[in-house]
Amino acid sequence: MVKGKRTRPYGLSIRMTAEEKQAVQKRIKESGRSQRDFVLHALLSIPIINNYGLQSLLPELRRVGNNLNQMARRCNQGKYPAYVEVVAMRKELSELWQSLRQLNREHL
Asked: Domain boundaries in the chain?
């Protein structure tokens, strides 16, 4: 066959371990599709989820977790956190919650 007349002239190649290849071949066989149809269906039908926004929230989440741990440690020692600390923590949690809600809206 002449290459110029192919309807699908482009190829795609990936590298995988023997275990990965075996698992993929098993799934292809279970699907009842050809390898090409299985791979195309998997690549074209799965929605893409960009988690970049979540990565940017991780430092803020860690900071909130550290602050909560410090407050819990003080409570366990019989000391109570200062009102200012509780208000600041509530504000941080509210901002984090709003950021998570915004990300959720963007991915719907």
From this structure: 15-46, 51-107
Residue 92 C-beta-side C-alpha neighbours within 13 Å: 17
Contacts of 15 (CB under 8 A, 6+ apart): none
Half-sphere exposure of residue 96: CA atoms within 13 angstroms, side-chain side: 17
Q: Token pair for residue 103? A: 């990300």
Tens digit of each residue's pLDDT (9 = 90 or more) over 64-107: 888 888 888 888 998 888 888 888 888 888 888 888 888 777 76
Between CA 59 and CA 68, with CA 65 as vertex, the angle to 5 degrees is 145
Closest CA to 63 of 91, 101, 104, 98: 91
Residue 3 DSSP class: G
pTM of full prediction above 0.70: no
DSSP 33: S
